[in-house]
From TrEMBL:
Enzyme class label: hydrolase
Domain annotation Metallo-beta-lactamase: ranges: 75-264
EC number, UniProt record: 3.5.2.6
Protein name: beta-lactamase
Organism lineage string: Bacteria, Pseudomonadati, Pseudomonadota, Gammaproteobacteria, Alteromonadales
Cofactor: Zn(2+)
Highest taxon above the source species: Bacteria
Record Pfam families: Lactamase_B
């Protein structure tokens, strides 16, 4: 039977229901009562708290390529790169709770061993990306890889304080004790893996974007991860964002990018693509590989138009 879009939607909903929601006080690392959590969340706009960015339904852990996996919520997740010498984790979700109760069980469900995590790349310094980093450093001895400006940003008392879906303030989230600085253009190597790190400030002062060589049933592809999608507040930050976007697109095209993924899976259709992947027939191509043209359309028609519109509002 052919799958209709409605059928795919139902599967998505079913996955959410089967996986269940994480209740907010379970993920509150300060142990606040539900009332206290509600008081904090009530201060946020409803468009945020009822939107995708606060949707903590767990998605089914999914293998995207031979050597790349996704674990996480609808709102945000982690990518897992397997290599001949261990695992590289990209981003760590909101909290140590997420690390322990979503990422680690997700890895196990995929047949991977969390003890193999050697490095954790934090794309940027918002708590939905670095929240579990300290957990992996403390529990598995993972090396935390970040840009220097971003390391400074997560320690900057003047940086905006974010509230997460569990009512934690970002200032309450434990930070990694140490980090290894990565710089623009650096190749991160572990075993047979080598991924390119690009400094793309804008969304935050020192964010990173990534180009990841993968294989699909042995066939090579190049996956792009744009590090921070949401637009920043000031004119200067948005100018940096646009500059970084142009730079990222240029290098990504030189490296032959033919797939693009976001660790906010509700954006860039990752959830739909993962569902299509589960229903993929043996002779079908990988739905995440949408080609170089589609990558450029995403950059040109969504990300660049958005930032240009915002920049024009400053004049
Ligand atoms: Zn962010």
């Amino acid at each position: 039977m052919k799958k209709t879009p409605g059928g795919i939607f139902s599967i998505t909903v079913l996955i959410y229901l089967l996986a269940g929601c994480t209740t907010s006080n379970e993920g509150n690392i300060m142990g606040l009562s539900e009332n206290e959590i509600e008081t904090r969340l009530d201060k946020l706009p409803t468009s945020l708290t009822s939107g995708d960015l606060f949707n903590t339904s767990i998605l089914e852990p999914t293998q995207l390529f031979d050597n790349l996996y996704f674990v996480g919520y609808v709102s945000v997740g982690s990518f897992v790169i397997t290599t001949s010498e261990g695992i590289i984790l990209i981003d760590t979700m909101w909290t140590p709770y997420d690390a322990e109760h979503v990422i680690v069980p997700g890895l196990k469900e995929l047949g991977l061993n969390p003890e193999d995590i050697k490095s954790v790349i934090v794309t940027h310094g918002h708590s939905d990306h670095y929240g579990g980093a300290h957990y992996f450093e403390a529990k598995y001895g993972a090396t935390i890889l970040m840009g220097k400006d971003e390391w400074n940003y997560i320690h900057d008392p003047k940086a905006p304080v974010l509230t997460d879906p569990f009512g934690n303030f970002s200032t309450e989230i434990p930070l990694p004790d140490t980090y290894t600085q990565v710089t623009d253009g650096e190749i991160i190597r572990l075993g047979n893996a080598n991924l390119t790190v690009l400094a793309t400030p804008g969304h935050t002062p020192g964010g990173l974007s990534l180009l990841i060589p993968v294989t699909d049933n042995g066939e090579p592809h190049m996956v792009a991860v744009w590090g921070g999608t949401g637009l920043p507040d000031t004119k200067e930050e948005n100018q940096n964002y646009l500059h970084s976007l142009n730079y990222f697109q240029n290098i990504a095209n030189k490296k032959g990018v033919d797939a693009s993924i976001s660790n906010h899976p509700f954006s860039n259709n990752l959830i739909e693509k993962m569902n299509a992947l589960k229903n993929r027939e043996f002779n079908q191509s990988n739905p995440i590989v949408t080609g170089n043209k589609a990558f450029n359309e995403y950059i040109d028609n969504e990300l660049r138009i958005n930032v240009k519109n915002k920049l024009s509002s400053f004049k």
